[in-house]
Amino acid sequence: MKFRTSLLLFISVLSFFFLGFVFMTGCGTGGGGSVCPSAATTVWVDSQNGSDEAGNGSASKPYKTIAKALAYVQTDWTVFLKNSPVPYDGFTWPLYSDNITFKGESPEGVKIEGSSRVITVNSFPGVTTCNIEDLTIKDGSVADHGGGIYISGSGLTFNAVRVIFSSNETTSSNNEGGAVYVTGATFKAVSCTFEGNTAYENGGAVSNSSDGIFDIRRCFFVNNTAQRGGAVRSNGNGRIENSIMILNHATPYVGGAISHPPSAATLEVINCTIVSNESDNDGGGLRINRVDIKNCIIWGNSAVGSGNDVSPQTSDRPYIEYSDILEWPSISNNGPGTLEAVDPVFASFPPSKPSDLKLTGSSPLPVREGGTTAGAPPIDYEGGSRIPPFSMGAYEY
After folding, report:
1. 59-82: burial string, b at 16+ Cβ within 10 Å, e else
2. pTM higher than 0.85 for the full model?
3. Structural domain boundaries of the chain?
4. Nearest to 253 by CA among 233, 287, 278, 280
């Protein structure tokens, strides 16, 4: 009798949890059981060959839409997006589940597009980490901040690895971050490309609020446009290292590549190559204030107003050390190891792609070996090891 009672109790508890699973995920025998994910940690999606009706989220029977996958993902799961000529639809990041990763088969083969914003991320208690890898965020357009991705939430870190941000835009006044806008959270980008993004106001590619943080490493910015900060507008804390910025444009105001207002928190720019950017006002390369520049090459930028390469907003900042600048700014706080108008002799100039800005055997020794190891990254733009004494710029010679 005791055994039978215990068995009935066990079955009742098991049934309770099963019904809870059915309620939470839609899985079960009432039309949902055959389409639930077959893998415990990965849901597969194929926008061309998948099916939301007949699929089960496995590699062999993927879903068709991200929306279907979102019904099932849980903490630490991955949504794997297969290469497809059919774009994936944008979405709002799922709440409740932490450390979800959206991973594409390849950056060029997986495109997530939006007729409005592509991805919206608002944090929820217990959600601390969001990840995207190996995909393209494309054609987002919104009359708000963050045409590609809007990231909001205290304690939230959003990681982007090998992501292409292309042709995203904000379309109305006072809106920032054509590709990415971050407020109250941290945005980390590694080996990403930001190309052809536009902000109506500030930060053609990336912008942060005063309480937003960005950490950008080994990224490429090209042909981005905004009124201030053609590539980046920094209002909160930020760090840009081992990155390349070319052919970005500020119109009609300042900072062809980077704009940093007087009230902003400190920005670090380390081992970057900032070349051939333009401003219709001041600061063809950078229009900046509290910025620490180290091991950089800033060369061949142009401004209609003052400061073709660097336009400081106060006489004592920025602080520049171990860097080669074609047109040196008038500041009183120069650090050691600085070079003025020492031609770095790039592989090809003017540049159209990152590799054009590699140093060559003809590059002067002070450029090839004139950097400092203190506070500098141990790897370069391509991920190769730097050899002390470090080179200036994004590439190690």
Report:
1. eebbbbbbebbbbbbbeebbbbbb
2. yes
3. 140-368
4. 280
